[in-house]
């Protein structure tokens, strides 16, 4: 029979993955190619994986190759594809690539004009902030960091609760394949990960009990801080480091950043941008305003032509819209004209002066930011960099070594040198004789001059007494640079005229260290437009201001500030042909940017190469300059410069000169918007399709300037967004809702909501308010209507798909609010027009159908996941043919699947119930359908299980615990089905368990050895455990039907009552049989058997167990506990009475033995005579001691082996009372007789000792000092006195007892030993004349006492009485005299009156007790004569018989 069991379920991974191969079925509901988010059924049956689609979207868009946006921008065919293509196909492909490049360049020209001179749109600054997204690599790093924390490899302190929270977060969220799919779709941000963790710990903290002084908010804050410490980014951005353009997704961009942004979007090279910028004169605001006026005039002419020739117009839905279209076009032109005229004339210069460069961002000028107009560039040098930013500090070391050709001073004259740099303090060398002019003295200087002057002067000491200054012999002036030689050199000194030292030379070593921020220096010829306007030679220094900002500065001698400077951001450098009309310089190169260029030249070719490479590294340009093949000069610089410009602008003139009116700007804008969306989805932010403010700004300006219709713009946007959704990219449904509402309002002719991508961009969570469009467009083209109907159908299918796969499209409710927005968008899509609301039944029917399909999809994927887990848990070798799975394995898999199902539905309730709040009944129906699918598999597996197996009960517990806690699913269809299946099994299980327990009771008590085990015996322990386990098991089932549950409970309580009753009855029967066993020959040797104690424990344990097993929560509902409790009390009382009766029978037999000494009986007279002569039966004290020992042993047995202290106390009390009653009765029967000394000593010992023993057991004083005990005590005192008198008379007759004889013999042997010891001591004293040592008296008491009496005697020996002390202190002679007198009295009875006198004195001084002691000593000598006459052996044998 199987024991009742309860399953301990382990926490499985709630967010576990479903296998990508599972999606390969034919169902159209499953996403192609594996897991994806926001995906949909593709229009073209060509599955594309997430990785593939993302690679296509984001390919070539890294920061290292920013120009490339996707595969359509300048693709490079693979070698394999080129080999397979024919020459014609390759040529055709190259033509397409070239056409694509031309289109992008032309589109970039229009974008440049829109950025350079905006007059319609403005950048929004109140957008919703987008957080950085988690990439695949980022997710792996996050998992690794969390794993490292869980392994204890970090130094972050934590408690067990936080450790468990992180472990659950890791298993449920981070390791989920659905989260991996969300990351692949670009829809998971770092903020989302933190929010999910916060949501999980909020639930955990709510369950933590309150702690005094520690609020739950504090715990929450602390846990979040620890999470941030775990997940913090290891690579922190350095202060001042420039951000790349891709990281500016939430910021308002400058013009330079916008230029760089669209260079990356359209894959335009930096050189192409610079050439276009200069050729289009974008820095000239007047030129741009004139170009806009020309564009407006051309558009007005085109409108006039359309008015004349209606065939030039697009096709409209209604014919009457043609006239309205003309009015709309004229109104748009007039609006542009008004916007242009409203701008000030100096708009460009005024605005550019206000624009400041932002913080230095990461990325070099060539690959990130480019500068705008020249005016802006000029202002930027002042605004961004000042002269104080490029101050350099040089460390100069001057070492004077030797002087040569010194003739003007005597050899013994003292000389020395001084050193100075600029206006610094002078330093001097050591003083030496002129004959030995050698030094090795170093002077260290610091200066901010790039061209410092070092002066070294030679002095001789003036020997005159009144001289103040030494004489200067010569000086050397040195102009070092960082590139100067650092080796010592001989410098000719400048001396005065007429001096003998005209050839004087000083050997000096000058070392000028180059500062870290100085990259190159030297002399150059230079000429530019705004700086260095004259062609001349200057000293230049290339200074690094920050990591990404450089400046070229010219310096003059003895000046620390540069005379002129140029910031190199946005410039490019390259070699050019020599200029023939400029004097100076042989090797030329220039730096170019929009609206500016600077020409440089050097005299040395290598110096030119060095400068160009330094400029190349500083500008960070992608193009590496190549030196020209020939360096021959031409006649004219202008001609060469013009040739170079024409070479760099080759092919650009046609794009610049193209008339905008000749292009279809709708198609160009569609391409621009598509590429912008691709770039935005590939940037580091989880944008969900929302453009950056810079992108919105440029697209708005483009649409307004070139007349792109708003409806067409949003239709293209919707088409692009749906394409991304079908490729499994995560798109915000709110964004689609905005664009769809705009288009629907336009097509249906109602009022149109404001542009969601413009003013309402920052409020996506607000309701879409209807308002009239500012431009008042009311015409609808046929193309717009058809495209809208197509998008509407695609959108409806996509939304139904997302609802069907809501767990995979929006895992863990992410993106936040996306599912709720999807339902709102579905309702809008189902509307016939913008004003008529859709019937609720229609919306509910669509959602209901989607949720029904979702139940099937979720269950199939979950089943596959459970199967995969089962295969991993139970790997099997490859087998040929069909593999037969045993039923037990199927049941294990079903239980695992049930766990996953419960976790899935709990997640639905936690993350999706709020979104389906208006359709909560449909979500409940979805759950019921889900469980109905599970029920099919459950019924199949349970039907295969063998009969009478109970392994399926854990399955019921898992399912029932979840269902009964859910108010919507409680007592639902599946819940009822579950009860119907398991009710017969529960009844059958209880029946078998009842039979099994009954059999175990019967067999157990038959074989029971009654050994103490636990609180009872082995059979009782097993019985109570089985009953408790069975009740716990049934209780843990939490049966949902109250009526059946109460029936089960009542049956189990009744079963427990019957089983306990049977157990008690069998135990009591065995108890009676055990007590019937007789006592041995000597009754005081009886010890209570442990079997009896075990039986008592069984009954007492049954009393404790009955309250739990027979009552309901401590309340006796069914009256079973009252019944069994009464039986237990009766049995316990009977056991107590019978047990005490058994123990009291020993006293009864002892008293019967004492009755043989009764006065007047023939046996008593004989025994008295025998004891007096030969001590046949010994003294009564021996018998008393044996009885007291019996009492003690059985007291210990009862106390140690019976568990219930109260029951033990009751037994002790009854035992004591029964003994006292028996003693009182025995003494009462002998009131008219005096007790024999044997009886008296025995009873006296018993009465005294049992009082003490029961007092130690805890009996109360009033119980011990009962009336009967006091009467006994008084009677024994009288009897003891009488016995003492009798013994005194015997002493007078000279009769000694055996005890006295034994005592005397022991004393004599001890005295002999002491005498021999004293003899030795006397000899020693005589030799040493020292007093003899005190003789230690040994106790002669050899009486064997109990263990309790030994400590008392030892204590008494250790502390002698005062009289004994006096006796010990008497002189040896006196002590010996007394002892000899006493011996003479005792030995021969030579003085018979002495004994009578001693008795008389004892009565007068000590009372009866003292007389009794004397009588005891006399009785001990009573057997002298009998022992001498009959013989000790026969007397002892006779006494032992009694």
Give the helix/strand layout.
Blueprint: H1 50-58, H2 79-84, H3 87-116, H4 136-150, H5 160-174, H6 177-184, H7 190-207, H8 216-231, H9 255-266, H10 270-279, H11 285-308, H12 321-342, H13 347-354, H14 374-384, E1 394-404, E2 414-421, E3 427-428, E4 432-433, E5 438-447, E6 454-460, E7 471-478, E8 489-492, E9 505-512, E10 518-528, E11 536-544, E12 550-555, E13 564-567, E14 572-575, E15 587-593, E16 596-602, H15 605-619, H16 637-648, H17 653-657, H18 665-681, H19 693-706, H20 710-726, H21 733-748, H22 782-804, H23 806-809, H24 818-829, H25 840-873, H26 887-912, H27 920-943, H28 953-965, H29 973-1007, H30 1018-1037, H31 1042-1075, H32 1090-1110, H33 1120-1155, H34 1162-1174, H35 1180-1201, H36 1205-1228, H37 1237-1256, H38 1261-1264, H39 1267-1292, H40 1298-1328, H41 1349-1358, H42 1362-1369, H43 1372-1387, H44 1392-1405, H45 1407-1419, H46 1424-1429, H47 1432-1441
Antiparallel strand pairs: 1-5, 1-9, 2-3, 2-4, 2-6, 6-7, 8-9, 10-11, 10-16, 11-12, 12-13, 14-15, 15-16
Helix pairs in contact: 3-9, 3-19, 4-5, 5-7, 7-8, 9-18, 11-12, 18-19, 18-20, 20-21, 20-22, 21-22, 21-24, 22-24, 22-25, 25-26, 25-27, 26-27, 26-28, 27-29, 29-30, 29-31, 30-31, 30-32, 31-32, 31-33, 32-33, 33-35, 33-36, 34-47, 35-37, 36-39, 37-39, 39-44, 39-45, 44-45
How would you characterize this protein structure?
There is one protein chain. This protein is an alpha+beta fold and 1442 residues long. The strands form three sheets. The chain has a seven-stranded antiparallel beta sheet. Strands 2, 3, 4, 6 and 7 form a five-stranded antiparallel beta sheet that branches. Helix 18 packs antiparallel against helix 19, helix 26 (887-912) packs parallel to helix 28 and helix 29 packs parallel to helix 31 (1042-1075). The protein is flat, with a radius of gyration of 58 Å. The two termini are 61 Å apart. Mean pLDDT is 77; it is low at 1-81, 346-383, 631-649, 751-775, 1323-1396 and 1418-1442.
């Amino acid at each position: 029979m199987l024991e009742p069991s309860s399953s301990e379920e382990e926490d499985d991974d709630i967010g576990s993955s479903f296998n990508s191969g599972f999606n390969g079925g034919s169902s159209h509901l499953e996403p192609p190619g594996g897991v994806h988010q926001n995906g949909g059924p593709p229009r073209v049956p060509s599955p594309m994986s997430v990785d593939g689609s993302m690679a296509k979207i984001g390919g070539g868009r890294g920061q290292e190759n920013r120009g490339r946006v996707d595969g359509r921008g300048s693709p490079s065919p693979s070698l394999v594809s080129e080999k397979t293509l024919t020459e014609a196909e390759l040529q055709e492909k190259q033509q397409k690539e070239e056409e694509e490049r031309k289109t992008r360049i032309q589109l970039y020209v229009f974008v440049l004009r829109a950025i350079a001179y905006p007059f319609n749109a403005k950048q929004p600054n109140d957008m919703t902030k987008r957080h950085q997204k988690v990439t695949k690599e980022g997710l792996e790093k996050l998992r690794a960091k969390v794993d490292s924390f869980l392994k204890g490899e970090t130094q972050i302190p934590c408690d067990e609760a936080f450790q468990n929270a992180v472990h659950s977060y890791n298993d449920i969220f981070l390791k989920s394949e659905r989260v991996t799919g969300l990351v692949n779709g670009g829809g998971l941000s770092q903020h989302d990960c933190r929010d999910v963790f916060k949501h999980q710990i909020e639930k955990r903290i709510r369950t933590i009990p309150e702690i005094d002084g520690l609020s739950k908010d504090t715990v929450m804050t602390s846990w979040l801080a620890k999470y941030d410490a775990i997940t913090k980014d290891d690579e922190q951005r350095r202060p001042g480091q420039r951000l790349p353009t891709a990281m500016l997704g939430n910021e308002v961009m400058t013009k330079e950043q916008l230029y760089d942004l669209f260079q990356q979007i359209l894959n335009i090279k930096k050189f192409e941008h610079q050439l276009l910028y200069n050729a289009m004169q974008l820095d000239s605001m007047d030129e741009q305003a004139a170009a806009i006026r020309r564009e407006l005039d051309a558009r007005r002419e085109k409108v006039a032509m359309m008015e004349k020739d209606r065939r030039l117009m697009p096709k409209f839905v209604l014919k009457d819209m043609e006239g309205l279209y003309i009015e709309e076009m004229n109104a748009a032109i007039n609006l542009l004209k008004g916007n242009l005229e409203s701008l000030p004339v100096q708009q460009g210069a005024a605005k550019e002066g206000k624009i400041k460069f932002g913080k230095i961002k990461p990325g070099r000028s060539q690959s990130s930011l480019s500068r705008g107009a020249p005016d802006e560039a000029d202002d930027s040098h002042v605004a961004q960099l000042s002269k104080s930013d490029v101050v350099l500090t040089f460390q100069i070391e001057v070492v004077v070594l030797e002087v040569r050709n010194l003739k003007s001073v005597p050899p013994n004259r003292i000389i020395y040198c001084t050193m100075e740099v600029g206006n610094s303090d002078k330093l001097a060398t050591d003083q030496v004789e002129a004959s030995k002019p050698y030094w090795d003295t170093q002077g260290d200087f610091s200066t901010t001059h790039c061209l410092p002057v070092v002066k070294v002067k030679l002095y001789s000491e003036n020997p005159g007494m009144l001289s103040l200054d030494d004489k200067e012999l010569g000086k050397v002036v040195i102009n070092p640079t960082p590139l100067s030689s650092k080796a010592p050199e001989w410098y000719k000194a400048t001396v005065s005229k007429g001096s003998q030292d005209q050839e004087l030379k000083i050997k000096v070593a000058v070392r000028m260290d180059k500062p870290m921020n100085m990259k190159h220096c030297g002399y150059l010829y230079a000429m530019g437009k705004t700086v260095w306007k004259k062609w001349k030679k200057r000293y230049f220094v290339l200074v690094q201001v920050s990591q990404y900002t450089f400046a070229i500065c010219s310096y003059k001698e003895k000046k620390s500030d540069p005379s002129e400077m140029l910031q190199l951001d946005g410039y490019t450098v390259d070699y050019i042909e020599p200029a023939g009309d400029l004097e100076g310089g042989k090797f030329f190169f220039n730096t170019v940017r929009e609206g500016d260029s600077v020409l440089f030249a050097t005299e040395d070719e290598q110096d030119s190469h060095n400068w160009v490479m330094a400029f190349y590294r500083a500008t960070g340009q992608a193009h590496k300059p190549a030196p020209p093949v020939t360096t021959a000069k031409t006649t004219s610089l202008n001609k060469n410069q013009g040739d170079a410009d024409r070479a760099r602008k080759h092919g650009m003139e046609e794009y610049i000169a193209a008339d905008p009116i000749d292009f279809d700007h709708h198609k160009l804008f569609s391409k621009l918007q598509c590429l912008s969306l691709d770039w935005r989805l590939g940037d580091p932010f989880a944008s969900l399709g929302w453009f950056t403010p810079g992108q919105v700004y440029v697209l708005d300006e483009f649409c307004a300037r070139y007349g792109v219709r708003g409806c067409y713009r949003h239709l293209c946007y919707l088409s692009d967004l749906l394409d991304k959704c079908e490729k499994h990219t995560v798109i915000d449904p709110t964004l689609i809702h905005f664009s769809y509402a705009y288009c629907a309002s336009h097509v249906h002719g109602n009022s149109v909501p404001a542009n969601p991508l413009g003013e309402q961009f920052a409020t996506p969570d607000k309701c879409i308010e209807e308002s009239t469009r500012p431009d008042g467009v009311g015409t609808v083209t046929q193309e717009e209507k058809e495209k809208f109907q197509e998008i509407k159908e695609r959108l409806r299918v996509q939304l139904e798909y997302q609802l069907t796969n809501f767990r995979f499209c929006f895992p863990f409710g992410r993106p936040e609010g996306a599912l709720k927005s999807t339902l709102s968008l579905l309702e809008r899509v189902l509307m016939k027009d913008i004003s008529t609301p859709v019937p609720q039944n229609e919306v509910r029917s669509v959602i209901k159908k989607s949720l029904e399909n979702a139940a099937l999809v979720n269950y199939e994927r979950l089943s596959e996941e459970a199967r995969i887990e089962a295969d991993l848990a139970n790997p099997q070798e490859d087998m040929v043919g069909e593999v037969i799975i045993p039923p037990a394995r199927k049941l294990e898999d079903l239980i695992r699947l049930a766990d996953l199902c419960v976790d899935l539905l709990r997640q639905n309730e936690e993350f999706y119930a709020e979104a389906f709040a208006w359709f909560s009944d449909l979500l409940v129906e979805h759950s019921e359908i889900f469980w109905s699918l599970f029920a099919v598999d459950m019924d199949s597996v349970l039907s295969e299980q063998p009969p009478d197996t109970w392994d399926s009960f854990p399955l019921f517990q898992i399912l029932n615990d979840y269902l009964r806690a859910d108010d919507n699913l409680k007592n639902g269809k599946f819940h009822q089905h579950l009860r119907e299946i398991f009710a017969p099994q529960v009844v059958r299980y209880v029946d078998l368990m009842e039979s099994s327990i009954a059999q175990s009771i019967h067999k157990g008590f038959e074989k029971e050895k009654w050994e103490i085990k636990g609180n009872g015996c082995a059979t009782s322990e097993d019985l109570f455990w089985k009953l408790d386990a069975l009740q716990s098991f049934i209780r843990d089932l939490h049966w949902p039907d109250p009526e059946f549950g109460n029936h089960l409970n009542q049956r189990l309580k009744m079963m427990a009552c019957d089983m306990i009753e049977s157990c008690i009855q069998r135990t009591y029967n065995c108890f009676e049989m055990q007590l019937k066993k007789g006592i041995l020959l000597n009754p005081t040797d009886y010890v209570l058997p442990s079997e009896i104690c075990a039986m008592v424990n069984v009954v007492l344990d049954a009393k404790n167990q009955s309250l739990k097993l027979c009552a309901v929560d401590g309340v006796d509902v069914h009256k079973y506990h009252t019944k069994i409790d009464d039986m237990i009390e009766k049995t316990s009382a009977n056991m107590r009475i019978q047990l005490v009766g058994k123990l009291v029978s020993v006293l009864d037999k002892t008293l019967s033995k004492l009755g043989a000494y009764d006065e007047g009986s023939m046996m008593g007279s004989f025994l008295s005579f025998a004891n007096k002569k030969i001590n046949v039966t010994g003294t009564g004290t021996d018998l008393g001691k044996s009885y007291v020992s019996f009492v003690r042993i059985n007291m210990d047995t009862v106390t140690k082996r019976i568990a219930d202290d109260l029951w033990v106390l009751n037994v002790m009390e009854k035992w004591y009372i029964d003994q006292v009653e028996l003693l009182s009765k025995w003494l009462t029967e002998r009131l008219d007789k005096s007790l024999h000394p044997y009886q008296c000593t025995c009873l006296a010992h018993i009465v005294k000792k049992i009082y003490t023993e029961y007092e130690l057991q805890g009996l109360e004083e009033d119980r011990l000092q009962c009336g009967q005990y006091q009467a006994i005590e008084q009677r024994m005192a009288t009897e003891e006195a009488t016995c003492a008198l009798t013994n005194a008379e015997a002493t007078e007759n000279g009769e000694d007892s055996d005890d006295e004889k034994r005592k005397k013999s022991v004393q004599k042997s001890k005295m002999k030993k002491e005498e021999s010891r004293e003899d030795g001591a006397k000899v020693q004293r005589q030799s040493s004349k020292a007093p003899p040592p005190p003789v230690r008296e040994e106790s002669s008491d050899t009486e064997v006492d109990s263990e309790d009496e030994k400590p008392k005697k030892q204590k008494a020996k250790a502390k002698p009485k005062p009289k004994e002390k006096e006796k010990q202190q008497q002189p040896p002679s006196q002590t010996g005299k007394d002892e000899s007198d006493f011996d003479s009295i005792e030995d021969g009875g030579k003085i018979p009156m002495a004994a009578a006198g001693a008795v008389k004195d004892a009565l007068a001084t000590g009372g009866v007790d003292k007389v009794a002691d004397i009588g005891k000593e006399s009785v001990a000598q009573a057997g002298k004569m009998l022992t001498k006459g009959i013989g000790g052996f026969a007397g002892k044998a006779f006494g032992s018989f009694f």
